[in-house]
Design brief:
Order of helices and strands of chain B: HHHEEHHHHHH
Number of strands of chain A: 3
Number of domains of chain A: 2
Distance between the termini of chain B: 57 Å
Radius of gyration of chain B: 19 Å
Strand order of the largest sheet of chain B: 1-2
Number of helices of chain B: 9
Helix content of chain B: over 70%
Structural class of chain A: mainly alpha
Largest interface: A-B, 99 and 94 residues
Strand content of chain A: 5-15%
Order of helices and strands of chain A: HHHHHEEEHHHHH
Oligomer: heterodimer
Number of helices of chain A: 10
Largest sheet of chain A: 3 strands, antiparallel
Largest sheet of chain B: 2 strands, antiparallel
Distance between the termini of chain A: 38 Å
Number of strands of chain B: 2
Radius of gyration of chain A: 24 Å
Shape of chain B: globular
Helix content of chain A: over 70%
Chain lengths: ~260, ~250
């Protein structure tokens, strides 16, 4: 997760208004779902990957690696869509059949098409969101949600959570290093005991940090209410706007041609 | 004849296991392996449907959080950090027998410590963060994933926690709560997938069983491992974090 966060802060379009990047990502995501055609989804992957490399200056392999993060879920779930399992023989004349014991394993060209469409649609939608994730830090997205009038309570929860995910992860990693250097994960039993200890110590660390932070706020005269921070200044990128329009129109055009 | 049939059965059963284990090994170790429906995987209609179903639970959770913050404004930071804790728990590695390691969802422990409605809100934010920080789950499937992991799992688990409270030793109750939270998440996700992709031959039931069988390979061991882990964490907390536990209203346990 450090990879995504790291590129989100250091890419070339980091300072572009988050509304512009989120607008593009959400539009492409919705188009993938609405148009629901394998080639349209494939074009969406190409566009988002291309924009991430060309506009944001990300290394091409990083985008690919993030895109395949969910390969495991995608493969397993798609198998169930492509194959049918039943106790009676399927009657469809187009079906390919395989009998294993009392079970019939079957598939049809239509089911295979559905599976391919599903994989591409998921990849297209995921590449749109990954483009957003890799080019926009979460603080910018929280700022966008603030502009969209999301409740200040939730904004505060998100801001504090985002910061402390990294603080706590750091804490966690140091504890894991300490445990590993003392052979804390040398066997299954020991590993389980170490993980249990780790979880409880992390909770105590979390709780005490929140108390200390509260003291720090109290010392500065905090009496409840929302935590206010200064927003960053953003700019609107005309080139990105133009390319986004071309990308979205090309997706629509491809659907009309098909 | 019988042995041939047996062979066929065991092949059918071991194949997904082998595939699953090999893929799990090939994956980068830092990524959580929890059962989130991937971005774009659900058709638009079902994606919207689950958003609509989740909304009332989000509203109840939000009102609960708001009430906590008006009564005790000093809890604002604790809630934020609790959310961070629930998120970071999923980065914890539980050793597992197959050689790969799995990650807890943390929803069982979160439910015991902070209550199901607060976990509903914190879990949903954690899901948004997972979609945007680790590319797991998604925004279009947020409703469905929140329904299974942040709302359904914790609510069912809380029911178990209240039902067994005082009737069985606490460690049994903690195990059951964490186990059921994972199991409920698994069952709800399976149902969501089967509803969206019914089998053309054997319908919803056939598709449900197929999805259930495929994900059982990773999810059932995870539920057991998380149950054990949660008991260990809870026991350690009872001995070393009595002040904090009392502040959360868990002193009598």
């Amino acid at each position: 997760m450090h990879i995504i966060d790291c590129y989100a802060y250091s890419n070339k379009i980091r300072a572009v208004d988050p509304a512009q990047k989120a607008g593009l990502a959400v539009t492409v995501l919705l188009l993938c779902l609405l148009l629901n055609r394998p080639l349209v989804s494939l074009l969406a992957v190409v566009w988002m990957w291309g924009l991430a490399v060309w506009q944001a200056g990300l290394p091409p392999l990083v985008f690919g690696r993030v895109l395949l993060a969910e390969l495991f879920f995608l493969l397993l779930a798609t198998v169930a869509v492509a194959l049918s399992v039943s106790t009676i023989a399927p009657t469809n004349p187009e079906a390919w059949l395989l009998q294993i014991g009392p079970l019939w394993l079957s598939s049809t060209p239509a089911a295979l098409y559905n599976a391919v469409n599903l994989v591409l649609r998921a990849l297209g939608a995921a590449s749109a969101m990954n483009f957003l994730a890799l080019t926009t830090p979460l603080v910018d997205l929280v700022e966008l949600m603030r502009r969209l009038r999301l409740s200040p309570i939730l904004i505060d929860l998100m801001t504090v959570m985002y910061r402390f995910i990294f603080v706590l992860l750091d804490s966690l990693n140091r504890m894991v290093a300490a445990q590993e250097s003392r052979l804390g994960y040398s066997s299954y039993r020991r590993g389980m005991a170490s993980a249990g200890l780790l979880g409880s110590q992390l909770f105590i660390d979390t709780y005490r940090r929140s108390q200390r932070l509260q003291t720090a706020l109290d010392a500065r005269g905090y009496t409840g209410g929302d935590l206010r921070v200064l927003p960053t200044t953003y700019y609107t990128s005309r080139p990105l706007l133009a390319v986004s329009a071309v990308a979205i129109l090309s997706l629509l055009a491809l659907r009309l041609v098909l | 004849m019988v042995s041939k049939k047996r062979l066929g059965w065991s092949l059918l059963l071991t194949l997904p296991l082998l595939v699953g284990v090999n893929i799990a090994w090939a994956r980068p170790a830092e990524l959580p392996q929890t059962m989130h429906i991937m971005e774009g995987f659900l058709p638009l209609g079902w994606a919207i449907f689950w958003w609509v179903v989740a909304t009332p639970f989000w509203i109840v959770g939000f009102l609960r959080v708001k009430k906590i913050l008006t009564e005790r404004p000093e809890q604002r930071l604790l809630l934020g950090l609790a959310g961070g804790f629930v998120f970071v728990l999923s980065a914890l590695k539980i050793p597992s027998v197959t050689g790969s390691s799995s990650h807890p969802t943390g929803t069982g422990l979160g439910t015991i410590l902070f209550g199901p409605f607060v976990v509903g809100i914190l879990g949903t934010i954690a899901l948004i963060f997972q979609a945007l920080l680790v590319a797991h789950g998604g925004i279009s499937t947020l409703g469905a994933n929140a329904m299974s992991m942040a709302i359904g799992g914790p609510l069912v688990a809380y029911g178990v926690w209240l039902l067994l409270r005082g009737k069985v030793p606490t460690y049994v109750n903690v195990f059951a709560t964490a186990f059921v939270a994972d199991l409920a998440t698994y069952v709800i996700t399976t149902t969501q997938l089967a509803l969206a992709f019914p089998d053309p031959v054997s319908g919803f039931i056939g598709s449900w069983l197929t999805f259930a069988a495929i994900f059982a390979v990773t999810q059932i061991p995870l539920a057991v491992a998380e149950g054990i882990l949660t008991v260990l964490i809870f026991n350690a907390l009872q001995t070393s974090a009595t002040t904090e536990m009392r502040a959360l209203g868990l002193q009598e346990v």
